[in-house]
Amino acid sequence: MKADLVVRNARVVRHDGAFFGGVAVVDGTIAMLGANALLPDATRVIDAEGRVLMPGVIDTHCHLGFHYPYDEDLATETPPAAVGGVTSALDYTPLVTADYLGFFREKCRQIETRSAIDWGFHFIIQREEDVHRLAQITADTGVTSYKFYFGYEPDNAIGIVPATDGWIFGAMRALATIPGGIINVHCENTAVGTWLEREIRPTGRQDLGAYQESRPGFVEEETIRRMIFFSELTGCPLHVVHTTIGAGVKLGVEARARGVDVTIETCPHYLTRTSYDPDLDMKAKICPPLRTKDEQEALWHGVADGGIFSIGTDHVPFRPKKGVDLWTESPGAVGFQWELPLMLHFGHHARGLPLTRLVEINSFNPARRFGLAPRKGTLQVGADADLVLVDLDLEKTVTHRGKGHCIYEGMRLKGWPVTTIVAGAVVAENGAFDDTATRPARCLNVPVAG
């Protein structure tokens, strides 16, 4: 057998262990793993020179198309994602039209022509009538993952339609009967957060800490408790997105111990920044807010001991922030390109996080939770050859010149991806995207209906 691509002399890291050797790729999938001596000849051979080879990152939390056209965001945001080691992503995209099937087909067309990586969807439910037809939407599109928002008032700056408990309960009853069905919830008690904000705003404070104090951790904790209650009641799998508090991690662990199918996600920004970092101002507003050092450390404990199930960037390329008024500033930041370097630097190097655990939360767990396994998220024969080669000793400074607001600018990080391979195609090397190597990206959602 002659392979299309072989990566050899690598420290190959999976979620369940590591070995020295490499991987052979044929027709975009992994054809062989093993010691160097077992690997076949190939059209192209990459000598890893002892560096780490792991599955590509699956970023299951991003938002494109909010301020810029969707196809434009795909073209500008996915190449940097690939450079950062991301090989697949799932986008939270709002359903705002009754013609969900036409909407979905147009998005798939845009993926195939503009995305540098494989791409799929969670649907954000924004209309009550869609709660009643989740089974049909799933059958027609293959999307099994749906998101609902709390924490946003009806007149919020980015047009999010907040959910009601009725929507949640109705959706959970429906999704519990759909194979692979899962609900994702932004957990913040909207009414309490609004009440506290109305108390703080008259003080005139414009510092980032004021935003955190207007929606403190218990606002998030209460809603996580409520969503777990509904999940336990209905039997619907629950994924709690962008968790910022240690109490949320604990609630998830306790619920799983009694058999509730709940998983907890956090984001790199909650693990690396706080609302009181002196270099951050109102432009670092994110919803839910950056927290305190104590909460940050509690999240790291969850990453280490398994309480945190997965990592998502919550990447959102808004137009440039105004920096005029904290309370009306758009929330969100970009993070695609730095998720892996941040986790390598602050997790592996600074805290001794095993690389196997990093693969678990960045690749293996997301693939299992959202129906992408065994095609994605692991290194095994028959899986897509989505690979990232990492230099653990490489040090670089974060720079950002694209859309959106970056809260990592100027950080010196140790551990960077140097080669990214998507379905066997080398799309990025040495910090640069190779647009000559692009191939049609694939939509990860497959319709059930004919």
Report on the structure:
It is globular and about 65 Å long. The chain contains 13 helices and 17 strands. Helix content is 32%, strand content 25%. The protein is of the alpha/beta class and 450 residues long.
Topology summary:
Layout (H helix, E strand, L loop, with lengths): L2 E12 L2 E10 L2 E6 L7 E6 L4 E4 L1 E6 L7 H14 L2 E10 L4 H15 L3 E8 L2 H4 L2 H8 L3 E5 L15 H11 L6 E5 L3 H11 L7 H7 L2 H18 L3 E3 L5 H12 L4 E5 L1 H5 L20 H13 L4 E2 L27 H13 L3 H15 L17 E11 L14 E11 L2 E5 L2 E2 L17
Parallel strand pairs: 1-4, 1-5, 6-7, 7-8, 8-9, 9-10, 10-11, 11-12, 12-13
Antiparallel strand pairs: 1-2, 2-3, 5-14, 14-15, 15-16, 16-17
Attribute tags:
about 450 residues, nine-stranded mixed β-sheet, eight-stranded parallel β-sheet, 17 strands
